[in-house]
Design a protein that fits this description.
Blueprint (H helix, E strand, L loop, with lengths): L3 E4 L2 E3 L5 E7 L8 E7 L6 E7 L4 E3 L7 E6 L4 E6 L8 E8 L3 E3 L3 E5 L2
Parallel strand pairs: 2-11
Antiparallel strand pairs: 1-3, 3-8, 4-5, 4-9, 5-6, 7-8, 9-10, 9-11
Length: 114
């Protein structure tokens, strides 16, 4: 069992930055992967960024060069640094962990608007 708690969402103007955090209830190094997904209104949930236990990362094309996923193993926390935010980044962002099955956080809302 893995519990995930996200934080860091909010309202930001276009071009601004936010950092999301996801705290896990177990040692994240033992997890196969952790990642961030997002779901905008009336759209399907999509992968934003993922980091494997070995430290490899992968990003959706739409966020490459703007978002960075990282982790602090000592804190069992994964981060998503989001820069140059655009209105189309507005969504509920969900933390995901995979260890025998998928685990999800409750989500944090990111709104990019002037």
């Amino acid at each position: 069992q893995v519990q995930l708690v996200e934080s860091g969402g909010g309202l930001v103007q276009p071009g601004g930055s936010l950092r999301l955090s996801c705290a896990a209830s177990r040692n994240i190094f033992s997890l196969v992967s952790m990642g961030w997904y997002r779901q905008a209104a009336e759209k399907q949930r999509e992968l934003v960024a993922i980091i494997t236990s070995g430290g490899s990362t992968n990003y959706a094309d739409s966020v490459k060069g703007r978002f960075t996923i990282s982790r602090d193993i000592s804190k069992n926390t994964v981060y998503l640094q989001m820069n140059s935010l655009k209105p189309e980044d507005t969504a509920v962002y969900y933390c995901n962990a995979y260890w025998l099955m998928n685990y999800w956080g409750e989500g944090t809302l990111v709104t990019v608007s002037s």
